Amino acid sequence: MHPHDPRVTKCEEIPVEFPPQYQPGQPGLEFLMVPRPVSELPGKAGSGKLQNKVAIITGGDSGIGRAVAYLFAREGADIVVVYLNEHADAAETQERIRQLGRSCLTIAGDIGDEKFCREVVEITLSRFERVDILINNAAELIYEEDMNNLSSEQLLRIFQTNVFSCFYFTKSLVPYLQPGSVIINTSSLAADKGYQAMASYSASKGAISALTRSLAVSLADRGIRVNAVAPGRTWTPLIPSSFPPEFYMFYGSINNPGPIKRTAEPYEIAPIYLYLASEESRFVIGQTIHVNGGEYMGL
C-alpha cells in the first residue's frame, strides 16, 4: 500500500467489496491483490511505546504481519521480517520500515523447519544483540470441502507451519528473553467458530490458543508475557491463495455475517498487537483477544 493512498485516510473509502481472484500457491502475494490490503494509517505519529525494541514477526512481509511491522516501526521498534518466498512483498515492507526510520532485516525460509527457526534467532541476535518481542503470525490454510480429501501430509504441513513453528521459535528464543519481553501468537475466529471447509486450519488455531495459555503460565515467573490475537475475516494474501473465487461472496459487505458488515483491513487488527506488546498490557497474560467485528461471541 502506497503511504499516500487515499483509501487509508477515511473509513468510508476503505474497500468493502473484493472481486473474485485466485492465486495458485500459498502464502500468496500481496502486490497482486485487487484491491491491495490497507496496511497503515498515514499521518498518525507514534508515541515511542516500543522505542528501541526488537521484534521478530513471522509472516511480516504482508497482510496482518506487515501492518504490525509498520505500526511497531512507528512506535520505535526495529523489525525482523520472516517470510517464505514472497521476496517482492518483503522488499516493499523493508523499504517502508526504513522510511519510517527503523532498521528492518528480512529472512526467507520455512518456519516449519526447527533448524531454520533457530537460525532466525541466531541471525537476529547477531545483528541486534537482543530480541524483545516475538510475533508468531505466519500461517497456512487448506480449503477442504470434504475432509476425506485431506491427506496426512497436508495435515502435518498445516500444523508444522501454524503450530510447530510457535514451539520452535519460543524454545529457541526464551533463553535470550529478558523480563518484560513479550510473545504474541496469532489464533483465529476459526478456533472458536466451526467452518466446514477449514477443519485443519481451525484445529491448528485452536491449538495455538491452548498453547498460549500454557506458555503464559510457564513463563510468567521469568517476566515474559504470552498472549494471542484472534482476527476475524481480514483481507490478506492468505485469502486469494487459499479459497476458490466463489468464496468472495462471503467477503463483501452484503453477505458478511458480522454486524459491521464488512471485512477488516490489516491495519485495523495491528493495534491489538501493539497493546499486547507494550507496557500498557503488563497485567495481561494468557489471553486470546478477538478482533472480528462482532461476527462471533453472540453478536
UniProtKB/TrEMBL annotation:
Keywords for this protein: Oxidoreductase
SUPFAM superfamilies noted in UniProt: NAD(P)-binding Rossmann-fold domains (SSF51735)
Coiled-coil regions listed: none
InterPro entries per UniProt: NAD(P)-bd_dom_sf (IPR036291), Sc_DH/Rdtase_CS (IPR020904), SDR_fam (IPR002347)
PANTHER family to which the protein is assigned, alphabetical: NADPH-DEPENDENT ALDEHYDE REDUCTASE 1, CHLOROPLASTIC, NADPH-DEPENDENT ALDEHYDE REDUCTASE-LIKE PROTEIN, CHLOROPLASTIC-RELATED
UniProt record similarity statement: Belongs to the short-chain dehydrogenases/reductases (SDR) family.
Protein name from the UniProt record: SDR family oxidoreductase
Originating organism: Paenibacillus aestuarii
